[in-house]
Amino acid sequence: MIVWRSLNLGIPLLAFAMLDLHVSCPEDQFLLPNRICCHFCPEGRFVTENCTRNQEKNTVTGVKCSRCTVCANGTQIAPCTTFNDTQCAVKKEITNISAEELLYVIMPVVCIMIIAAVGYKWCSRRREEPLKMMI
Q: Where are the annotated TNFR-Cys repeats, by residue (predicted)?
């Protein structure tokens, strides 16, 4: 009798759970966690925003799709998929730097190196000859 009672309570719960879990969509649609079937984007596009259900109006808004990016010079890292855009590698281009721009970059470095060299030389002389002053 004890075995029968435990089975008697479990069977209706199991049957109810099995009926509630099985939701499927047509082949041209995908299922969201909130049990809405959304259409896939056409070829060459990817989903940027899933469809949603308006509870008050009992309507479903469609998915929003964007065109897949075409990488320049075949620098594709990953292809466009249903939910992700194409991933492209970024090539850094070397630009021509004018002499004036180069001067603004190099001059501070050169000045710091000169100051460091003079300071090093002055400190090393003081260690060797502590009574002489550098003029």
A: 40-88
Range of lowest pLDDT (5-9, 48-52, 130-134): 5-9
Looking at residue 62, its amino acid is G
What stretch of H or E contains 120?
helix 99-128
Please determine, for residue 5, whether its predicted confidence score (pLDDT) is greater than 50: no
Q: How far apart are CA 96 and CA 108, in angstroms?
A: 20
| Residue 120, token pair as written in the block | 């090093």
Which one, of 56, 54, 47, 48, lies nearest residue 29 by Cα? 47
Q: Which structure tokens are listed for 41?
A: 């984007």
The pLDDT assigned to 57 comes to 74
pLDDT at 92: 67
Q: Which residue has the tokens 């466009």?
A: 80
Strand partners, 22: none
Q: Which two tokens stand for residue 43?
A: 């070829």
For residues 53 and 31, the answer to whether their CB atoms sit within 8 Å is: no
Q: Which of 6-15, 61-70, 89-98 has the highest mean pLDDT?
A: 61-70
